[in-house]
Amino acid sequence: MSSSIDFGVFRPASLGPYLEQDPHALPVTADREGYYGDGHFDWWLSGLNDYLRVKDVLAKNGANLSSGDELFELGCASGRVLRHFACHEPKCAVWGADINLRHVEWVRQFLPQRIRIFQNTILPQLPIADGTMSLVCAFSVFTHIDDMELAWICELRRILKPGGIAYLTIHSEHTWQRLGPGLPVYDALISQRDKIADYRVSAELFKQPMPEDKMVFCWDASGTYSSNVFHSTNYIRDTWGRFMEIKEIIVGGHSYQDVVVMMRGD
């Protein structure tokens, strides 16, 4: 099978075992908000890629998943990454949540029953006990949280065990430097520029260095997403680093987004 996904060092020797262990349905394009268009296999493969990247980070930090460990993905959508944890980590408890009920219902109906899936709200409050998770992930979530960002960081810290890992993706100054036609975040901002009040959005703006350490672009919309947020790595280290230890920031670790790897220290 051919694919446009670039695994880099994360390409497995064979996809056969991963395919055999995942007999579950794939969402139609509308059930994954249009991502990857008709490239259903590419969508599945992108989730495997991120799963393997998370596993690599866990190994680097001596935090490999063990039998009985629990993990949680905030903003899991229709299970692009979560399905791989459910299929390939059978001895771990797998939790997921999304703000979009359609995604939650899809996961509930088509992915393994042992996934504990629920709908969250914009409020940083999760029905999960303190200090129970060995891993929390959030792909393209903090790129859309304009308010209560730090409260969400605290909430993820609350549910992590001491020594647990948080794997979160962001738009950074490195994303900003790549902005241009064809990049989804750029196209979204340009298309909504007449509705964005706080900044004068134009192609010229994105040719300049990122003007602030945190940039929040908001607009009125009827859909789930109505903001795009950028953080400088200095902001992440100074602000998020007050709550958990920053282990590393992986530039381009999630396509044009960076990955922030944090550990709860106590």
Question: What layout of secondary structure does this protein have?
Answer:
Layout lengths: L15 H5 L19 H21 L9 E5 L7 H7 L4 E6 L2 H10 L5 E4 L13 E6 L10 H11 E11 L2 H6 L5 H8 L22 E5 L8 E5 L1 H7 L5 E10 L2 E7 L3
Parallel strand pairs: 1-2, 1-4, 2-3, 4-5
Antiparallel strand pairs: 5-9, 6-7, 8-9
Query: How many E-type strands?
Result: 9
Structural class comes to alpha/beta
How much β-strand is present in the residues? 15-25%
**Can you write the helix and strand succession as a string?**
HHEHEHEEHEHHEEHEE
Radius of gyration: 18 Å
What attributes does this structure have?
single chain; 266 residues; alpha/beta; 7-stranded mixed sheet; two-stranded antiparallel ribbon; 8 helices; 9 strands; 28% helix; globular; disordered N terminus
Care to describe what's here?
There is one protein chain. 33% of the residues are buried. By secondary structure, the protein is an alpha/beta fold. It has a seven-stranded mixed beta sheet with strand order 3-2-1-4-5-9-8, sandwiched between helices. Strands 6-7 form a two-stranded antiparallel sheet. The chain is built from eight helices and nine strands.
What would a concise description of this structure say?
Helix content is 28%, strand content 22%. With 266 residues, it is of the alpha/beta class. The longest helix is centred in the N-terminal third of the chain and has 21 residues.
